[in-house]
Design goal:
Blueprint: H1 3-8, E1 9-22, E2 30-32, E3 38-45, E4 50-57, E5 60-66, E6 74-75, E7 80-85, E8 90-95, H2 99-123, H3 125-149, H4 159-246, H5 253-362
Antiparallel strand pairs: 1-2, 1-3, 1-8, 3-4, 4-5, 6-7, 7-8
């Protein structure tokens, strides 16, 4: 992939993580980009002074993102983080095996982002000044032209106050709608974070379940081995006791030492098996704790879905109120227009009456 670029790029940091991308249809759910954990690396191009994040799964590039100063890596849980790539129009998510790996990647992301910002400021210092001067002149001319071409405001005493109030209500409803939409988007982000955390818990849960199944499958075998070792130990002890009782009539002292050594080895093996059993029991307790965390995350996710439903209902009510206000404003506009027409007719009649009076006075 991009051989001429990779020749001049050098890796500066690598980590193993599960890669996800945001669903382009819903913008809420995560889609796994790799079946297993893959290597995610930071590369630096010294010729172009550019930093990139690259991850390859099989024969295709899962991540090919150029780091910009505007990017921000956000930790959404203890082992999950995400950042947005505006050029690719997507959001990347990384699930790490440990919290320490997530912290190391976050610190490196911040370091690379600061380096990219310093490089851009250094290379574009003069260009930014010239660009600012070039943009300022036409913008000022456009603002002046818009101001000169804006139509005058026609005021009519009476209905003008109602029109102003209607427009104020329209602005208030629009700001309320924007505020509720912002709350809904924040709720969606929280829901995405909960889904990512739930996925991490499910991943850890599946690993613990597999380990427990394997341990349970081996427990019976270990118990049988343990019983066989105990029987062998008792038999060897009896032989040792018998040798001690008969003195020189039994086997030699060398055989006695070998039996004693075998007995000690079996006792050490029994002790090791007991420790393994204690470790498995502790893992079982940890598995129950993970199940509790998963149930709690599912409960929080359901509460968030209920909250989103409530926010959607409030948005629908706000849109209905806004539609009613727009209809009321249109009706007020038509009434004002009729009032203006009536005033024009009255003014015309008064003008005719004044001319008639002037004619009578002249006679």
């Amino acid at each position: 992939m991009y051989p001429h670029h990779r020749e001049r790029e050098q890796p500066i940091f690598s980590a193993r993580a599960h890669v996800f991308q945001i669903d382009p249809a819903t913008k809420r759910n995560w889609i796994p980009a790799s079946k297993h954990a893959v290597t995610v690396s930071f590369f630096y191009d010294a010729n172009r002074n550019v930093y990139r994040i690259i991850s390859v799964g099989g024969t295709k590039a899962i991540i090919n993102c150029t780091v910009t100063p505007s990017m921000t890596f956000t930790k959404t849980s203890q082992k999950f983080g995400q950042w947005a790539d505006s050029r690719a129009n997507t959001v990347y998510g990384l699930g790490f095996a440990t919290e320490q790996q997530l912290h190391q990647f976050s610190e490196k992301f911040k370091e690379v982002k600061d380096a990219a910002r310093l490089a851009r400021e250094k290379s574009q210092d003069k260009e930014l000044a010239n660009t600012a001067l070039t943009i300022a002149a036409p913008q000022f001319s456009q603002d002046l032209s818009d101001e000169l071409q804006s139509p005058p405001v026609m005021c009519v005493n009476g209905p003008e106050d109602k029109l102003f109030r209607s427009q104020s209500a329209d602005i208030t409803l629009s700001s309320e709608k924007e505020r509720i939409k912002k709350m809904l988007s924040e709720g969606s982000i929280c829901e995405m974070n909960l889904e990512a955390e739930l996925f991490t818990l499910q991943d850890s849960n599946s690993k613990l379940v597999a380990a427990l199944h394997e341990a349970n499958a081996n427990v019976e075998q270990w118990k049988k081995q343990l019983a066989a070792y105990q029987e062998e130990t008792e038999r060897l002890r009896e032989q040792v006791a018998d040798l001690e009782a008969h003195g020189g009539q039994g086997p030699s002292d060398l055989l006695k030492d070998e039996l004693t050594q075998s007995l000690e080895e079996l006792e050490a093996l029994l002790k090791a098996k007991d420790e393994e059993i204690h470790i498995l029991q502790s893992k079982k307790a940890e598995y129950h704790e993970m199940e509790h965390d998963r149930d709690e995350a599912i409960h929080r996710l359901r509460e968030m879905e209920m909250r989103n439903s409530e926010l959607e209902r409030r948005i629908q009510n706000t849109e209905q109120n806004l539609s009613n206000s727009l209809e009321e404003r249109d009706r007020m506009d038509s009434e004002i227009q009729r009032a203006i027409e009536i005033l024009d007719i009255k003014i015309f009649d008064l003008n005719d009456l004044r001319q008639s009076l002037f004619k009578l006075i002249d006679k």
